[in-house]
Amino acid sequence: MKEKIIKVIVFFLILILLMIIISYPFIPKNNSKESGMHDSDVYGILGEPENSIDVIIYGDSESITSFIPLKMWDEYGYTSYICGTAGQSMPAVCKAILKTTKTQKPKYIVLEVNNMYVHSGVTAPLAKIVNTVFPVIEYHDRWKELKSEDIFGKINYTETVNDKGYHYMGAVTPIDASDYMIYSDDVQEIAIEHRVYLRLIKKYCISKGIELILISAPNTKNWTYQKHNGLDKFCKETEIEYIDFNIIAKEIGIDWSHDTGDLGEHVNIYGAQKVTSYLGNYFYNKGKIINHKNDSKYNEWNKIKVDY
Amino acid sequence: MTYTDVQFLFIFLPIVVVLYNLFPKKHRAKVLLLASYVFFGIISKKLIVYILLATGIIYGCGLWLSKLQNKRDNILKDAEKEQKKEIKEKYTKKQRRVVVLNALVLLGILIVLKYSAFICTNLNSLFDVLNMSFTIKVPHFMMPIGISFYTLQAISYIVDVYKGKIKADKNIGRLALFLSFFPQIIEGPICRYEETAEKLWEGNRTTYIGLTQGGQRILFGLMKKYIVVDRVNPFILEVFNNYGHHNGGMIAAAMVLYTFQLYMDFSGTMDIAIGVAEMFGVKMPENFKQPFFSKTVSEFWTRWHITLGAFFRDYIYYPISLTKKCKNLTSAGRKKLGNYYGPMLASTIALFSVWLCNGIWHGSDWNYIFFGLYHFTIIFIGRMIEPPVKWINKKLKINSEAFWYKFLQIIRTIILVFIGELFFRANGLKAGLEMFWKMITNFSLKPIINKTILDYGVDKQDFIIMGVVLVVIVIISLLKEKGINVREAIAKRNIVLRWSIYYLLILSIIIFGCYGIGVTPLDPMYANF
Predict the structure, then answer these.
(1) Of A271, A181, A272, whose CA–CA distance to A222 is shortest?
(2) What is the ipTM of this complex?
(3) Chain B contact present for A27, CB below 8 A
(4) Most-buried pick from A67, A95, A191, B109 (CB within 10 A)?
(5) Whether CATH 2.60.40.2470 fits A2-307
(6) In what order do the strands lie in the sheet with A108-112?
(7) Do B366 and B486 belong together in one domain?
């Protein structure tokens, strides 16, 4: 029996080894879509110079439409990057944080929390782990396009994205927001698995000397006072900073007859400008980030601004 | 959750295997039963009540039959010789009523859930044709997964108890496990009580051989599913949903690829089901036996979905053939038409019933009924022309045992099967007929010559990789036809070669499998029937 158990263990160890070896050719050698990189918008940051980003933002579609990194640069000289994507789940957020902080040491990680009330299931985190350990699983579909440089070439991420992860929404589709965020004492607790994820992210951020901030982007469709209370309660318990733009929407001047492009689900460019200005000012008041505008190392940002 | 999902393969199944072996022998079957209900609950939610109901019904009816049989036997012990026949007949009638009642309830549930919408829609069309201003509201019921399979298993149990082939089970747990065992619940195989019930309830520990052989079988099934089934699906969807935009060549290609896909999906699921059962020490009946080596359509159906064919043979064909009226018809036929064509009258009635039921069983639409009757017609014609064909062969001195003759028979059978599957997959009978007509009148190899066939989600590399899998399947099938058990043959080889084959299989699935971003996996195709 013992011999058979050893046999099974050896079989799987060899399999793991083979999968690690065979993974290398499948890993995209650059971070562009053309090179086969999945979520190339998210991983455009991998092409940025090392340790050059002050703020990295993660989250679902709210994150990519509500902040404009180039505006924050324009107003405050802070470098920021959105590594969120539509429907980004918490396991995907964790994976993105781990991957992006390998080359960047931001002062702040900002997590948009609209996804906090969507269950991510049991297999999603496992899949992310397996995909990370064995890239052949995530990138197996590249078998059709493998070239000799995929086998013998080195990984070199050079692709950068000019909008730094922001997704432009210029349309104006007004919404009546009179029944939005009506005060309530009720609390909608966040899912248990997300509590675990948030605690892990916080722990990771502390270990890296990064400050974690949770935010809720303005959203009349999905956000409620009950959800706000749930997040607020959790953040107080865990001592994580939390900014709910839905609470301060009036204060920052969000006008739902003008600042949304899809009936309140996301803010458009006008709303995003207001959110970005507030967030820039927030970082300014904290005083942890310096203005890089006059730093020659950041000249690229000035050029992109002009292009943009 | 299906058998090819990550949740099933890497979470559910390992947990069940571990729990099953952690428990003492007397409780292992209960672990399997609980796991089966959890599995059924996950995929069918509250519809689990239907399988519980079916279990309760056959348990009660089985005991009722057993009581009647015991009573009959006790009376027969003391009965006079001349009374015995009368007593037997009386109790047979009583038992028959129980069987009929059981079948009516079980089939009634199936008919209401599966066919009521079809029946009502057709009645409404009839009322419309007859200018009757009357319509029936078309009901839409949620149907539990696997109802078509477990209902047949339930009926087979009761009929076998009635026939005295098996004794009614007093253990409701064993009966429940027989009906709901999770690897078989979605697509079968349709097991007989004597094949699996006892073995399942024994709760034997998982053996190394069972685990490894079962694992290999599962891998083989996964290869079919991941490399072929989902890969070819975009092309099939495109052509069958938009056949008006495609010529006969494309339709023919879709017809062939669909048959290929269906075989890979269904036989792949069976490989997984049988492999999982092996892990628990249970040998489930095979459902496929190299069907594409059949020389006639009739033979094909003894090699494809074997357990369904066997069910229809044992519970429809034989009972009808052996009725008094059919027997009389056979006798009369023999006198008038001879020994070959004479018995054919009665057997044709039975054959027709089988194929009508086969068509209806597969789905509630006219194309399924057509599919059944198409096969009936082909098989019937095959039987009718058998003597003249033999006569012609003899006259022309054609050796029907020659390789080329058998090969042509196989090709003919495959073409006939392809046509049947075209109607089977078509979006309704009208679409099936139009596609068939277009295939004949507008056939062209242009899509292959100018490579437009590659524009519908399946490119050249996809075709190559599917071709490789097809070659592997053909080689394995040929070896099986020669009586070589491939798994046993591999098991006898040295460890380096053996493991290399397993690694090659696993890595092929990982690399060439169709999964991940942008892929919508196809649900098990037979689960909908």
Answers:
(1) A181
(2) 0.80
(3) no
(4) A67
(5) no
(6) A80-82, A55-58, A108-112, A211-216, A241-244
(7) no
Q: Which of A 180-199 lie inside 8 A of B, CB atoms?
A: none
Check whether residue B34 and residue B154 sit in a common domain: yes
Find the DSSP H helices in chain A. Answer: 2-23, 61-66, 69-76, 90-100, 123-133, 135-138, 148-152, 192-208, 225-238, 269-286, 299-307
The CA radius of gyration of chain A, in Å to the nearest whole number, is 21
Same domain assignment for residues B18 and B75: yes
Write down the domain spans for chain A. Answer: 2-307
| Whether residues B175 and B192 fall in one domain | yes
Domain identity same for B181 and B245 = no
Contact between A140 and B516 using a beta-carbon 8 Å cutoff: yes
Does residue B435 lie within any of the structural domains?
A: no
Tens of pLDDT along chain A (308 residues) come to 788 889 889 999 999 999 999 999 999 999 888 888 888 888 899 999 999 999 999 999 999 999 999 999 999 999 999 999 998 999 999 999 999 999 999 999 999 999 888 887 777 788 888 888 999 999 999 999 998 888 888 888 888 888 899 999 999 998 988 889 999 999 999 988 899 999 999 999 999 999 999 999 999 998 999 999 999 999 999 999 999 999 999 999 999 999 999 999 999 999 999 999 999 999 999 999 999 989 999 988 888 865 54
Residues in B closer than 8 angstroms to A19, CB to CB, are 507, 510
Q: Does residue B394 share a domain with residue B484?
A: no
Which chain A residue shows the shortest CA-CA distance from B10? A123
Six-digit token pair at B177? 């496990």
Contact check, Cβ <8 Å, B511/A143: yes
